[in-house]
Write a structure and sequence with these properties.
alpha+beta, Jelly Rolls, four-stranded antiparallel β-sheet, 21% helix, rod-shaped
């Protein structure tokens, strides 16, 4: 049959002759992914080239190659991209926190960042020692956590008296970190006092 007139009852026969009925009415013979649609869509036809990157529909996988599957992946990618943009938008933003610590003779936390969301850059902790007298001293300790869920590890211990705090605003430099940083202070001699402090860091 070389030609079929599409008129009246012959229209169905014409659609079936060109496998066009499989577009919306008749199911493909193979319905298990990957779907072999060679019987319905001949290799290297226009439709075969639209469906596959090599004109071969014998390994068409609906779970990855269909428009819905592609749309689902795009949705996931968009969600991940939004999360990345949100994180990067907050990166390298200079942030400040502070307060007042009243010493009691024990080692006390001044500044702690327990679980940063990503690598961040603590810059410094400043402590107001204006009220210090010649008979007073404090000890500052720096701790870093270098693995997820790990313990804080002491990196440095620094003792200050009035003669070593010049000027009276003490500045403690900090290093970039990923898993946590802690700065503590202990009054080791003299009267317990209220110390104002400020921490600056980039996240």
């Amino acid at each position: 049959m070389s030609r079929i007139e599409i008129s009246g009852g012959a229209s169905k026969e014409a659609l079936e002759y060109g496998n066009l009925d499989h577009l919306a009415l008749t199911a493909c013979a193979d319905v298990t992914d990957p779907v072999d649609m060679t019987a319905e869509v001949a290799d290297n036809t226009v439709l075969a080239n639209i469906l596959s990157n090599d004109g071969n529909t014998s390994d068409y996988d609906r779970s990855t190659d269909s428009l819905e599957a592609i749309s689902d992946r795009i949705t996931i990618i968009d969600t991940v991209a939004d999360a990345i943009l949100a994180d990067t938008a907050a990166m390298l933003v200079l942030t400040e926190s502070g307060g007042t610590l009243t010493t009691d003779g024990n080692e006390q936390s001044v500044y702690v960042n327990e679980t940063p969301a990503a690598a961040f850059k603590p810059i410094c902790v400043k402590i107001d020692c204006t009220a210090h007298t010649a008979t007073e001293s404090i000890t500052i300790k720096l701790y870093y956590r270098i693995k997820s869920g790990g313990e804080y590890i002491l990196q440095d211990t620094i003792s200050y008296t009035l003669t070593t705090i010049v000027p009276a605003l003490l500045s403690v430099d900090l290093e970039p970190n990923r898993y946590g940083v802690k700065v503590t202070m202990q009054k080791t001699a003299g009267t317990n006092r209220a110390y104002d402090w400020e921490a600056c860091y980039e996240v």
